[in-house]
Design goal:
Elements (H helix, E strand, L loop, with lengths): L1 E3 L4 H12 L5 E4 L8 H5 L6 E4 L5 H10 L4 E4 L6 H6 L1 H20 L6 E5 L24 H20 L3 E6 L1 E3 L9 H10 L5 E2 L6 E2 L1 E3 H14 L9 E4 L5 E2 H11 L7 E2 L15 H7 L7 H16 L1
Length: 314
């Protein structure tokens, strides 16, 4: 199995789960300080075949898939930080869009590939008048990161219908859990601030509503879809995965404050713009077709996440 983005937050957890299941896992590694990645903290890289390269490099992808006779591709590699995507849209389009067509084309030319799972995002729906979004909700993205993921989905549809490549798409709510050291994100940033004795910061005005998904449930969603793709003929299908418990930024931060027994109050900056105001998903399709449902409530996921950061930051 090939995982692009294996050193990323979700990629690390997925890699660890597959290694524990005794799968043969090939991880595409972009580079950088890998010792600080969650993959290396878990230690599962010792049981993986790591290949250094970028999804923008088609020849590397084709060589890796062919030489290792890859059966399943989990394409998670992306520029996933919304703020950075707006600051450097060209690099975002290069990684997210070009990187995806390279992965799909390499998979098309590799006879051993039986399934490709591509990570999209709930952001592809854009601003919706009717919530929660279902898989048939029109894709109305307008901001750089969101648009890049919409393009990814159109590329997937192209390869399914033009080349019969078996591709399925995941659209997850905001995935959270231990191991995410991007403290610009609301949950790890809030936990980090409170642990250090500082007031947590909310960049928006705090009323925006989002849906969340604990990382272990996200991993189970990918594995469940991968296992059933061929049997249920799910090529070309997209699936929403979320808790179905949308909360505002203020509510989420307050919940974390209470779970950490803090008396601090959040600082609300009201600085963000060019982001979707409200977004949450229906996962009924995944529950009905795949038999998937999250095992962790928001409270349970936050408790496990806080415990992870307490141990890590100590």
């Amino acid at each position: 199995m090939l995982i692009t983005g294996c050193t990323g937050f979700l990629g690390s957890w997925l890699s660890n789960s597959l290694v524990k299941a005794e799968a043969i896992v090939i991880g595409l590694v972009r580079g950088g300080n890998l010792v600080n990645s969650h993959l290396f903290r878990l230690g599962c890289q010792k049981q993986m075949n790591l290949v250094y390269g970028r999804v923008e490099d088609f020849k590397t992808l084709l060589r890796v898939m062919s030489e290792h006779e890859v059966d399943t591709v989990f394409h998670l590699a992306a520029q996933a930080i919304v703020g950075k995507a707006s600051q450097d849209s060209l690099a975002t389009f290069e990684t997210n869009i070009k990187g995806t067509w390279n992965v799909l084309e390499a998979a098309r030319r590799t006879p051993s590939v039986k399934r490709v799972l591509v990570a999209s995002s709930d952001k592809v729906y854009g601003t919706c008048d009717v919530l929660p979004c279902v898989e048939t909700t029109p894709l109305q993205a307008i901001y750089p990161y969101d648009v890049s993921k919409s393009c990814v989905e159109h590329l997937c549809a192209c390869y399914v219908h033009s080349f019969n490549l078996p591709v399925s798409i995941t659209r997850c709510g905001n995935v959270f859990g231990g191991g995410d050291l991007n403290y610009n994100r609301l949950i790890p940033g809030t936990i980090y601030s409170l642990f250090k004795g500082n007031s947590p910061v909310i960049r928006s005005e705090g009323s925006s509503i989002r849906d969340y998904l604990y990382v272990e449930d996200g991993v189970e969603a990918y594995l469940c879809l991968a296992e059933k793709m061929e049997e249920l003929k799910l090529s070309g299908e997209a699936f929403n995965f979320s808790l179905g418990s949308p909360v505002s930024a203020k509510q989420l931060v307050q919940q974390i404050i209470e779970l950490m027994d803090s008396q601090l109050k959040p600082v609300i900056l009201s600085e963000t713009s060019k982001e979707i105001q409200n977004m949450f998903l229906s996962s009924q399709k995944a529950k009905k077709i795949l038999g998937w449902q999250p095992k962790h409530s928001l409270d349970q996921g936050l408790r496990k996440t806080i415990q992870w950061y307490r141990e890590f930051l100590s």
